[in-house]
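Hi everyone,

Forwarding the result from last night's run.
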Amino acid sequence: EFRARGGDAYTPWVRVELVEQPALNELELEVIPPAYTKQPPQPLPAGRGPYFVLKGSTLKLAGTANKELVRAEIRHDGKSQKLDLQGGTKVSGQLGPEDIAATQYVIDLEDTLKLTSRRPTTFGLRIRADREPRIKVRLIGVSGMVVPKARIPFSCRVNDDFGVTDLNVQFQWRGDDPMRP
């Protein structure tokens, strides 16, 4: 309570109730890697960002607010996307592969009193490299002379971060004859 005094007069006591600003009490993030990796969805540990995700991933988020909300959205790089509200305090949403970038994400909340988050929840994402497959090819028992329709034995070793789904071998002979292409 407070009151004001001016000269010899006092105002009546005014009762004040402090109001909490909206905030997320908890936030769960789950990354769904691209289908070609054949990896299951992976939860991201809270407060351990920035998080490294593969390009083409999808990010799901779910959180619980400290009070009833009328609006929740996520912002990054000048873009904004509304989040779903359930029961007033539950927030959820999904960022598709086109919205995954190496940047900082900010979750803005607004409560029923039109108050907004003073310190919004943030998290950062970084893009994890998916290197190209590494290939080693070795000819087996082949000399410099190869006749037409010859079978050329070779061994091939291919390594990839997430597995090889297809391999196609092509070859081209560049002989010593300058008249032949």
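The mean pLDDT is 88.

Cheers,
N.
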